[in-house]
Amino acid sequence: MTKNVCTQCGYEHVVIHRKYNGQRLCSSCFKKSIEGKVLKTIKKQKLVTKGDKVLVGLSGGKDSVALLKILNILKEKRIIELEAVTIDEGIAGYREEGVRIAKDVAKELGVKHHIVSFADKYNFTIDKIMEAEQKEEHPQHACTYCGVFRRQIFNQMARDVKADKLATGHNLDDETQSILMNYLEGNVNNMVRIGYKTEARDKRFTQKIKPLREIPEKEIGLYVLESGFEVHFDGCPYAHESFRMEIGDFLRETTLKHPTIMYSTLNGFEKIKPAIKKDYMENFTGKPNKTCIKCGEPSSQEICKSCKFLEKIQNKIN
Ligand code: SF4
Ligand code: ZN
């Protein structure tokens, strides 16, 4: 086979050379291969059942756009119902673009789209919180607040629209980073929760699924571009030099020399996970799920983290 020929169809315009399996693919075969792989993951891991309503967390970034586009194939075949939600945290100069792309993509695919902003729901923005945090001696990081409120919105929205599944765009890079990070930190509690889907701890939480878990980040970007969608590459200005980033750089660099490393990390983890889980769960004395006395949401404490943060923020901002 000559170098620049698609290994599937023989067409001469190759858009990708997959070093991990030797394939060279043209645009059309590449897109089919990504869609086929994701749909196979969904089937094999039983991520959806016929008739499910799936809510997609659509940030407007490449991962969630690819996810919506692929799940739309199942919507068109009338296997699932599909809706999307975009959260606007109020991050000037960054989030507006994501929201615009999310709106366009949902419209183009004919998917019902919800936008929830921190400003409308909580009466503050992440920018506003960070402005107040900067006056503190030890300012909290934006993601600490952002993550808690985003989780709450996703969970409430999934319940409001009666979604059976909440789908997120986590890719192979994200997942291998999580595996390695939690392993190196000795965080078994987090490790046993890494997977294709969450297990229902409480019926007030909608099950989360990750259909893109076996697709490398680079290929998702290419898939979105080859599908004719706009890609929002800018990063959040509050994303910081975290341990996750260090691990991500390490994995990307290692992949250059060892192209299959992310797949072997993921597959190896999937093999040992049942044993870790069994042992861990047998010795697990976790706290039962309670109900927050302030907002009625599920919580492991009397007052949930979101309500605690809300009070703290009101005091800071007012
Ligand atoms: Fe929020 Fe942090 Fe993500 Fe920015 S990087 S959107 S602050 S969680
Ligand atoms: Zn609460």
Search tags:
9 strands, alpha/beta, binds iron/sulfur cluster, globular, binds zinc ion, 318 residues, 12 helices
Oligomer: single chain
Which segments are poorly predicted (pLDDT under 50) over 5 or more consecutive residues? none
Main sheet record: 5 strands, parallel
According to CATH, the homologous superfamily of the largest domain is HUPs
Reported by name, the CATH topology of the largest domain is Rossmann fold
Task: Determine and state the CATH class of the largest domain.
Answer: Alpha Beta
Shape designation: globular
CATH architecture of the largest domain: 3-Layer(aba) Sandwich
Quote the distance from N terminus to C terminus.
68 Å
Bound molecule types: iron/sulfur cluster, zinc ion
How many domain modules?
2
Strand order of the largest sheet: 5-4-3-6-7
Proportion of residues in extended strands: 5-15%
Q: On the 0-100 scale, what is the average pLDDT?
A: 93
What does this structure look like?
The chain has helices at 27-44, 62-76, 95-109, 118-122, 126-133, 142-160, 172-184, 188-191, 217-226, 243-257, 261-282, 305-317; strands at residues 14-17, 24-26, 53-57, 81-88, 112-117, 165-167, 207-209, 290-291, 298-299. It is an alpha/beta fold and 318 residues long. It folds into two domains: 34-284, HUPs (Rossmann fold), CATH 3.40.50; 288-318, no CATH class. Strand 8 (290-291) and strand 9 (298-299) form a beta hairpin. Helix 1 crosses helix 9 and helix 2 (62-76) crosses helix 9. It starts with 13 loop residues before the first strand and ends with a helix. The mean pLDDT is 93. The protein binds iron/sulfur cluster and zinc ion. Iron/sulfur cluster binds at residues 89, 126, 142-143, 146-147, 236, 238-239.
